[in-house]
Amino acid sequence: MGYENVTQSLTKIIEMKNITKKFGDFVANDSVNLDVFKGKVHALLGENGAGKSTLMNILYGLYSPTSGEILINGKKVEITNPNIAIEHGIGMVHQHFMLVKPFTVTQNIILGQEPVSKMSVLNMKKALKDVKEISERYGLYVDPNAKIEDISVGMQQRVEILKALYRGAEILILDEPTAVLTPQEIVELIQIIKNLTKEGKSIILISHKLKEIIDAADFCLIIRRGKHIDTVVVPETNEEGLASKMVGREVSFVVDKKVKVAGDEIFSIKDLVVKDNRDIVAVDKLNISIKKGEILGLAGIDGNGQTELLEAITGLRKVESGEIKINDNNITNNTPFQVINKKISHIPEDRQKRGLVLDFDISENTILENYYKNPFARKGILNYNNIRVYAKELIDKFDVRPKEESKMARTLSGGNQQKVIIAREVSNDPDLLIAAQPTRGLDVGAIEFVHKSLIDQRDNDKAVFLISFELDEIMNVSDRIAVIYEGKIVGIVDAKDAEVEKLGLMMAGGGSK
Amino acid sequence: MKLKMKELRRALYIFATEKTVGFTLISIFLGLVVGALFLAVAGFNPFRAYWIMLQGIFAKPSYISYTIIRATPLILTGLSIAFAFKTGLFNIGAEGQFIIGSVAATAAGYFLHLPLLIHIPVVIISAVLAAGIWGGLAGFFKAKFGVHEVISTIMLNWVALYFQNFLIYTKGFQKPGGETSYSIQPTANMMILKTWKQSEAGREWLLQHPFWKDLLRTPMNWGFVIAILMAVLVWFILNKTALGFRLRAVGFNKFAAEYGGINVNKNMIISMFIAGALAGLAGALQVVGVSHKVTLIAAMEGYGFDGIAVALIANSNAMGCILAGLLFGALKYGGAKIQPFMQAPSEVVSIVIGSIVFFISIPKLIKLILTRKSKKGGTK
């Protein structure tokens, strides 16, 4: 059919024409064109750092374009700040949520546009009614009285969408909305997107996940290194087609993995009980063991005790009862320092909070655990020459970009931040490598790299514990798969016998034991 | 010509926004402008006032000496706050730590009888330890009970103040008949050439050498040298040692530090101990070099609070604290002279300092002013 033919009969709501944005000599967007149609989903696909967010920040008024123009409903507009964008009916749901955690769902939604009765008294009744009405209309169910800090990430995202709708958004920009969601939540989100478009809302979906673009979008604009590559009609293409356009080469989706017989058991957890922040049991008499040369995948929906389990193993959270052993050493309730010295490395779930000191440079981050050891320090005095040499080595080996060890970790892209962490953790030569959500928010190329690093560890006879909400990842990378539900392991299967449906059922608590 | 103006503005913009030193200098300049405005509104000639101030700082060797003496404790309390800042803590308690340091120094200086070369180090070390523990207490409260250090240090300031006043009314410590303590032993006195200055030969020599006479009129002492050494030491600890690495990691991101095996609580206590020790050193140097005793104080003397401003102006940079401390000392000492000479209120100095801190705290405002200007310049 072709893009021109399909779009002929549709109403253009936004036109971004020849948008170019330069930061100094760096061209973030190079004559990019984007049309958004009423009631349709337009995806924006590109690798990390391709310029997707820059384009959306221009539309949302956070950046002004170097050249090019924006038309809304056929009229030329100057969007110089987000308030103007909101006036034009543009709402944005950022990747990192902007919510007041101790406030309730309703309080967050109405924040800044509170309904008031006479004498400027906050009319909470009306607020609740309004929120309920919108949430029912679009199938965005949330508990309006729950506090943000008590609800899941998926729910928080709904609150963000509701916030935009409450402000009268006609066009919703969703920035990497599935990066933080579980498989079930992704299905629900896609349903929500469909409900929204049915009601005439337009959606711009920023993503580098091909599957959800195929599932949810009508059109897709592909950007590579700031350049406009193509706009395609999604039903007329497939994942491979999108991927090769995005990366500029053919991409393999199959993880390359040799058959390997696992060795002796090296790590075990017996009857572990851990409580969460609210003092409720989150890990409930959990048992697990991992062998040398094996990748054990932990599948499960977010919030079933994975975080608490990880924190308990790595010494960041107190163990109530039970036993954690590595190499026959009991490490229950050890400090993080002791755990690291028992040859356990950890790629943390949240790389910006736990994994990196963002205001340290790359070289300082590469020695975060070893700063006091020879050759990085002698008698308490740091040797920056040796530190730099070491950092350079890791940068080369793990292809961190830019190749400058004095760059602040803050300035790196997500994929390169993750590479720094992986470089550091793998170079500690651990007996057990714990990888929590290691590919969260990364693009296809970076994901290939991370998976290869994990499999290399396993091929070197090390144990790997992979925790991920991406079922595909768990199934492709692991040798054995354990499923966690409400803090318990509800089943362990061999990866080669695993079926998505069965695992999905177990993850939802419906599996046979 | 037009182009040149544009280039100049562009250069100024880069200077003010991308280089911290340039930004600080512009803030200081703007602070002086605000002070001038106040003077002008009050009917005084600001140029004359600033000229008197300048003369009051540089005209005589003794003036320079006084400026340095004024600056010494401020450099150290500034370092104390900057050090805590760099490790993620806000030490409002330099004031109290200063008091504890000076009380401990006075006690060790009066009660102990030791030989000359040993007495001063002993006095200083006891003051540093006492104030370090005082500061470490706030770190301990935070680590153990989660009490925010701003709250605990403010409280500890008052405890320290009344503790000093209590001691001054304690028999054995109070000098009979006065609201002050006994003076420290001569062996604990760090004034340069103190005995020689008062000796017959010394007085005669000084009569013939007016430059030295004027300079030695002041309680000139080794404190400034020690303060500079401390700035170097602080810089070294923070940037070159494993301890500094730990402390900075905790300051920038305590979650990542904890994950990396660093004991966050322990390092918070260490950091507050060092911050307290630095402020305590300021108090000790004040006693051994200048006052030789402690007196009854009705309110906070402000060494610690001024230290906050010093640290802010220095952008928490150890070397910057030396310069900021000197600037502060100069403004305070020189500024006091506009009152007797032209009856202008010397409080204007506080306005200047306040404004400098204000401009430094709002880099965006300066950026905004400069972009507005360069934008206009561009379209004309």
Q: Any overview of this molecule?
A:
The complex is a heterodimer of chains A (513) and B (380). Chain A folds into 4 domains: 165 residues, 3-Layer(aba) Sandwich (Rossmann fold); 71 residues, no CATH class; 173 residues, P-loop containing nucleotide triphosphate hydrolases (Rossmann fold); 76 residues, no CATH class. Helix content of chain A is 33%, strand content 27%. Chain A contains 18 helices and 22 strands. Chain A has a 6-stranded mixed beta sheet, with helices on both faces. In chain A, a hairpin with a 2-residue loop joins strand 14 and strand 15. The longest helix of chain A is centred in the middle third of the chain and has 16 residues. Chain A is globular and about 70 Å long. The model of chain A has no long low-confidence stretch (mean pLDDT 89). Chain B is an all-alpha fold. Chain B folds into 2 domains: 78 residues; 275 residues, no CATH class. Helix content of chain B is 78%, strand content 0%. Chain B has 19 helices and no strands. Chain B starts with a helix and ends with a helix. At the A-B interface, helix 11, helix 12 and strand 18 of A face helix 12 and helix 13 of B.
